[in-house]
Amino acid sequence: MTQCNNLSSVAESSANIAYLTEQPLINDVVKPLIHLKQAKPENAMKVVEFFAGHSEVAFCDWQDVVQTKRMLEKDTTVVFLAYAGTKIVGACFCGILGSRATVNHLAVNSEYRNNRIANKLVDASIGVIKDTGVKRLFLFVADDNNSAANFWVKQGFTETSAEITLERDI
Protein backbone atom coordinates (compact mmCIF):
# COMPACT_ATOMS: atom_id res chain seq x y z
CA MET A 1 0.00 0.00 0.00
CA THR A 2 1.39 3.39 -0.97
CA GLN A 3 1.07 6.20 1.53
CA CYS A 4 0.66 9.92 0.98
CA ASN A 5 3.10 12.07 2.87
CA ASN A 6 2.88 15.71 3.89
CA LEU A 7 -0.90 15.92 3.94
CA SER A 8 -2.10 19.31 5.03
CA SER A 9 -5.49 20.74 5.77
CA VAL A 10 -7.22 24.02 5.14
CA ALA A 11 -10.07 24.87 7.50
CA GLU A 12 -13.10 26.93 6.62
CA SER A 13 -13.95 28.17 10.10
CA SER A 14 -17.66 28.81 9.63
CA ALA A 15 -18.38 25.42 8.07
CA ASN A 16 -15.95 23.29 10.10
CA ILE A 17 -14.68 21.66 6.92
CA ALA A 18 -11.10 20.60 6.31
CA TYR A 19 -9.71 19.26 3.07
CA LEU A 20 -6.78 16.93 2.62
CA THR A 21 -4.80 18.47 -0.20
CA GLU A 22 -3.25 15.31 -1.54
CA GLN A 23 -5.25 12.35 -2.74
CA PRO A 24 -4.73 9.04 -0.95
CA LEU A 25 -3.10 6.36 -3.03
CA ILE A 26 -4.37 2.89 -2.33
CA ASN A 27 -2.72 0.02 -4.19
CA ASP A 28 -1.36 2.70 -6.52
CA VAL A 29 -4.90 3.82 -7.42
CA VAL A 30 -5.75 7.45 -6.73
CA LYS A 31 -8.77 7.70 -4.45
CA PRO A 32 -11.06 10.76 -4.36
CA LEU A 33 -9.97 13.77 -2.34
CA ILE A 34 -10.90 13.43 1.31
CA HIS A 35 -12.81 16.19 3.05
CA LEU A 36 -13.83 16.45 6.68
CA LYS A 37 -17.16 17.79 7.77
CA GLN A 38 -18.68 18.19 11.21
CA ALA A 39 -21.71 15.89 11.60
CA LYS A 40 -25.18 17.28 12.15
CA PRO A 41 -28.28 15.58 13.61
CA GLU A 42 -29.48 14.65 10.13
CA ASN A 43 -26.29 12.55 9.74
CA ALA A 44 -27.24 10.25 12.66
CA MET A 45 -28.15 7.26 10.47
CA LYS A 46 -24.87 7.50 8.55
CA VAL A 47 -22.87 7.82 11.79
CA VAL A 48 -24.53 4.72 13.28
CA GLU A 49 -24.12 2.70 10.08
CA PHE A 50 -20.47 3.68 9.79
CA PHE A 51 -19.46 2.77 13.34
CA ALA A 52 -21.64 -0.36 13.39
CA GLY A 53 -19.64 -1.55 10.39
CA HIS A 54 -16.35 -1.41 12.29
CA SER A 55 -16.04 -4.32 14.70
CA GLU A 56 -12.84 -2.86 16.20
CA VAL A 57 -14.91 0.01 17.64
CA ALA A 58 -16.88 -0.59 20.85
CA PHE A 59 -20.10 0.76 19.35
CA CYS A 60 -22.98 -0.62 21.43
CA ASP A 61 -26.39 -1.79 20.24
CA TRP A 62 -28.07 0.91 22.31
CA GLN A 63 -26.23 3.58 20.33
CA ASP A 64 -29.01 3.69 17.79
CA VAL A 65 -30.13 6.40 15.39
CA VAL A 66 -32.49 8.06 17.90
CA GLN A 67 -29.84 8.24 20.62
CA THR A 68 -27.15 9.36 18.17
CA LYS A 69 -29.40 12.09 16.76
CA ARG A 70 -30.07 13.35 20.30
CA MET A 71 -26.33 13.42 20.97
CA LEU A 72 -25.64 15.30 17.71
CA GLU A 73 -28.19 17.95 18.73
CA LYS A 74 -26.11 18.83 21.81
CA ASP A 75 -23.32 21.40 21.87
CA THR A 76 -21.31 18.93 23.94
CA THR A 77 -20.99 16.43 21.08
CA VAL A 78 -18.26 16.79 18.46
CA VAL A 79 -18.34 14.40 15.51
CA PHE A 80 -16.32 14.73 12.33
CA LEU A 81 -16.86 12.60 9.24
CA ALA A 82 -14.24 12.01 6.52
CA TYR A 83 -15.73 11.75 3.04
CA ALA A 84 -14.26 10.39 -0.19
CA GLY A 85 -16.75 11.92 -2.57
CA THR A 86 -20.08 11.13 -0.90
CA LYS A 87 -18.84 8.00 0.92
CA ILE A 88 -17.94 8.19 4.61
CA VAL A 89 -14.50 6.63 5.03
CA GLY A 90 -13.69 7.77 8.57
CA ALA A 91 -15.28 9.25 11.67
CA CYS A 92 -14.36 10.59 15.10
CA PHE A 93 -17.03 10.86 17.83
CA CYS A 94 -16.21 12.94 20.93
CA GLY A 95 -18.10 14.33 23.89
CA ILE A 96 -17.45 17.21 26.28
CA LEU A 97 -17.97 16.37 29.96
CA GLY A 98 -17.58 19.52 32.00
CA SER A 99 -13.89 20.44 32.07
CA ARG A 100 -12.82 17.29 30.22
CA ALA A 101 -13.67 15.67 26.92
CA THR A 102 -13.59 12.11 25.69
CA VAL A 103 -12.95 10.44 22.37
CA ASN A 104 -15.71 7.85 22.23
CA HIS A 105 -15.04 6.32 18.81
CA LEU A 106 -12.56 6.65 15.96
CA ALA A 107 -12.49 4.53 12.81
CA VAL A 108 -11.22 4.69 9.24
CA ASN A 109 -12.17 2.21 6.51
CA SER A 110 -9.33 -0.27 6.09
CA GLU A 111 -8.64 0.66 2.46
CA TYR A 112 -8.15 4.31 3.49
CA ARG A 113 -5.86 3.74 6.47
CA ASN A 114 -2.26 4.94 6.57
CA ASN A 115 -3.17 8.18 4.82
CA ARG A 116 -3.35 10.33 8.00
CA ILE A 117 -7.14 10.52 7.85
CA ALA A 118 -7.44 9.48 11.51
CA ASN A 119 -4.92 12.16 12.46
CA LYS A 120 -6.93 14.82 10.63
CA LEU A 121 -10.20 13.66 12.23
CA VAL A 122 -8.61 13.86 15.68
CA ASP A 123 -7.03 17.26 14.96
CA ALA A 124 -10.36 18.69 13.73
CA SER A 125 -12.18 17.34 16.80
CA ILE A 126 -9.56 18.66 19.21
CA GLY A 127 -9.74 22.07 17.55
CA VAL A 128 -13.47 22.37 18.25
CA ILE A 129 -13.07 21.00 21.77
CA LYS A 130 -10.21 23.42 22.60
CA ASP A 131 -12.40 26.32 21.48
CA THR A 132 -14.80 25.47 24.35
CA GLY A 133 -12.02 25.90 26.92
CA VAL A 134 -11.55 22.20 27.66
CA LYS A 135 -7.95 21.39 28.58
CA ARG A 136 -7.95 17.59 28.99
CA LEU A 137 -9.02 14.82 26.64
CA PHE A 138 -9.27 11.18 27.60
CA LEU A 139 -10.25 7.92 25.93
CA PHE A 140 -10.42 4.21 26.48
CA VAL A 141 -8.66 1.56 24.41
CA ALA A 142 -9.33 -2.16 24.71
CA ASP A 143 -6.32 -3.75 26.36
CA ASP A 144 -5.84 -6.10 23.40
CA ASN A 145 -5.94 -3.33 20.75
CA ASN A 146 -2.23 -2.56 20.44
CA SER A 147 -2.52 -0.72 17.12
CA ALA A 148 -5.06 1.71 18.61
CA ALA A 149 -2.97 2.20 21.75
CA ASN A 150 0.11 2.92 19.60
CA PHE A 151 -1.86 5.39 17.46
CA TRP A 152 -3.02 7.33 20.55
CA VAL A 153 0.48 7.40 22.07
CA LYS A 154 1.70 8.94 18.79
CA GLN A 155 -1.05 11.56 19.22
CA GLY A 156 0.49 12.55 22.58
CA PHE A 157 -1.74 10.54 24.93
CA THR A 158 -0.21 8.73 27.89
CA GLU A 159 -1.48 5.73 29.78
CA THR A 160 -2.84 6.64 33.18
CA SER A 161 -2.05 4.74 36.32
CA ALA A 162 -3.70 4.43 39.71
CA GLU A 163 -7.14 4.44 38.08
CA ILE A 164 -9.63 1.68 37.54
CA THR A 165 -12.38 2.12 34.99
CA LEU A 166 -15.81 1.12 36.19
CA GLU A 167 -19.02 1.35 34.19
CA ARG A 168 -22.66 0.40 34.41
CA ASP A 169 -25.58 0.44 32.00
CA ILE A 170 -28.53 2.50 33.24
Counting DSSP E segments of at least 2 residues, the number of strands comes to: 9
**CATH fold type:** Aminopeptidase
Note the gap between the termini.
44 Å
Which structural class do the helices and strands define? alpha+beta
Query: If you average the pLDDT, what whole number results?
Result: 84
Unreliable stretches (pLDDT < 50, length at least 5) are: 1-16
| Beta-strand residue percentage | 25-35%
Largest sheet: 7 strands, mixed
**SSE order, one letter for each helix or strand:** EEEEEHHEEEHEH
CATH superfamily: Gcn5-related N-acetyltransferase (GNAT)
Question: Number of helix segments?
Answer: 4
Describe this protein with a few key phrases.
Aminopeptidase, 4 helices, globular, seven-stranded mixed β-sheet, 29% strand, two-stranded antiparallel ribbon, disordered N terminus, 170 residues, alpha+beta
Structural features, described:
With 170 residues, the protein is of the alpha+beta class. The protein has one domain: Aminopeptidase (3-Layer(aba) Sandwich). Helix content is 24%, strand content 29%. The protein has four helices and nine strands. The longest helix is centred in the last third of the chain and has 14 residues, at 117-130. It starts with 8 loop residues before the first strand and ends in a 16-residue tail after the last helix.
